[in-house]
Design a protein that fits this description.
Two copies of one chain form a homodimer. Chain A has 303 residues and is α+β, with helices and mostly antiparallel strands. Helix content of chain A is 33%, strand content 23%. In chain A, the strands form two sheets. In chain A, strands 1, 2, 3, 4, 5, 6 and 7 form a seven-stranded mixed beta sheet that branches. In chain A, helix 1 packs antiparallel against helix 2. The longest helix of chain A has 18 residues. The radius of gyration of chain A is 20 Å and the shape is globular. Chains A and B meet through strand 3, helix 7, strand 11, helix 8 and helix 9 of A and strand 3, helix 7, strand 11, helix 8 and helix 9 of B.
Chain lengths: 303, 303
């Protein structure tokens, strides 16, 4: 049995200076046992999303290295961007992958929070790692952003779980959490009417009475109405189930889906569920995939 | 760059005696660098299909080990079964996988043929490795089977490429070849009328003017009409293209597809093509799959 795997998806507050972004990313890449899975930098939001994975200790080391690099390279006092943020290492969620449970990811988030606190980052735990119900949702934790942070940290309801209770104006504060793997799946409609995308999103998302474990919002992107979805539990709602719900809701509003996109990574399971659904396959799992049999994780091999 | 990979899919003439089958399989498994991908034994046909993979030299060693084990464990003079066969190691095709070309697989087939010849197996090269056009198709090579083999080997048109020209009644002869990776994909119709499956097969297969690189036959299996397909080049015809052609042809004959099955392995590409097609994804390749990024072949990693 291989050691449990985790993914970290830190967001740091630099999306324009390629040299700084590269220095931060390379510092994490140099940590033994860490594998970089992706980097997405957004100049408008002036923010980068780094994805890396590995066992618990390598991912913890990578997170500490990342925090030090962010503190060394970035200064929130001189940063600006469209995205709400409260720290140089703004958000640091941990995701349980193969062999790991959500409890494992919560433990990792607490270990990372403690380490960042020792580096003088005020740390608020959020998501499944939150220490109070009102601190679970990231938008609530981050409300007021950097500008409101000094006052926030003095509020007993929002005192940091780790680190100093006074903010460092250069570092800001960090939200460290645990959450399930998300499949970010967007559908583009054959209309520029954002209200149609918003109405479709309302119908398909769980909070609107739609599909379980689906979050959805409507946007206008590149002149098209976009239904942006997060699928948070593929056992409850698959990609084909989400798409067919969007197609149906859009059709009722006189629109149709022109194309879709996957943002970031999807687990093989999501792709296999899709093929099984549309092909009507009696069975299909990772053991039917040549590459899994050749290179796959030991416990997914057929031997 | 990793060394080119090959798959071998030998068929040997024992499908009933589990002890013998296990001894033969374990001998191959013990060869360093060989990975067993699958074993399917059929008691009716009294025949087993073993699938293994690795670099060129390990797969060659595995093939030689397999031939010796078949000669030691099996005796064609006392074997019976429904399937046409001419040897204890009846068919030994090599398939180019990642990094390998068909020319590489042909070279491997010739090396294996030479080695088997030195072990006194009469060897006929077939498929892409055939040394004459009339020896390409396996059914032609195997025509007359074991019972007609002694006469066959004396025919100048069918003299072995390697090994003795007289047959050993215990070993018989072996067809050694090279062929592309096949996706074996079957569709079950909502009828027991085999003629409908045969008519559908005729319409979708390349030889009937249908889809390029598709072979198809109609059968009755488990009380259902089955369209059995081999997809031999996924760049030319994908699984969704094949299925939609079957659905359309069946519909014209008043039938529909109830379910499908994948026999053996499919490359990840086949599954990704399917998801991309039915979801309308703007792009989807192996780099979007979490497991590929975590465990994949080095040249499919994003780093």
């Amino acid at each position: 049995m291989r050691a449990p795997l985790f993914e970290a998806v830190p967001n740091f507050s630099e999306g324009r200076d390629d040299t700084k972004i590269a220095r931060i990313t390379e510092a994490v890449r140099a940590v033994p046992g860490v594998r970089i899975l992706g980097l997405h930098s957004d100049p408008d939001h002036n923010r980068s999303v780094l994805t890396f994975a590995g066992g618990e200790d390598p991912v913890l080391s990578g997170s500490i290295t990342l925090a030090k690099a962010c503190a060394a390279e970035l200064d929130l006092a001189s940063q600006s961007g469209e995205h709400p943020r409260m720290g140089v290492l703004d958000v640091l969620p941990f995701v349980p992958l193969e062999g790991a449970t959500m409890d494992d990811a919560i433990r990792l988030a607490r270990r990372a929070g403690e380490s960042l606190g020792a580096l003088d980052f005020p740390v608020l735990l959020y998501g499944s790692a939150a220490t109070a119900p009102h601190r679970r949702a990231l938008p609530d934790v981050r409300r007021g952003g950097y500008e409101g942070l000094a006052a926030r940290l003095e509020d007993p309801l929002w005192k940091p779980d780790y680190g100093p209770h006074e903010m460092d104006p250069h570092k800001g504060a960090s939200a460290v959490g645990a959450r399930p793997f998300l499949v970010a799946f967007n559908a583009y409609l054959d209309t520029d009417d954002v209200e149609i995308a918003q109405a479709v999103a309302l119908r398909v998302r769980e909070s609107g009475g739609g599909l379980p474990t689906v979050r959805a919002l409507g946007f206008g992107v590149g002149g098209k109405a976009q239904v942006s979805m997060n699928l948070t539990d593929l056992e409850r709602t698959t990609m084909p189930a989400a798409l067919e719900a969007v197609r149906s809701a859009a059709s009722d509003l006189g629109a149709s889906v022109e194309s879709t996109e996957l943002v970031g990574l999807a687990p093989l399971k999501a792709i296999l569920q899709t093929a099984r659904h549309y092909l009507g396959l009696r069975e299909l799992d990772a053991h039917h995939v040549l590459e899994t049999m050749l290179y796959g994780a030991p416990d997914s091999r057929g031997e």
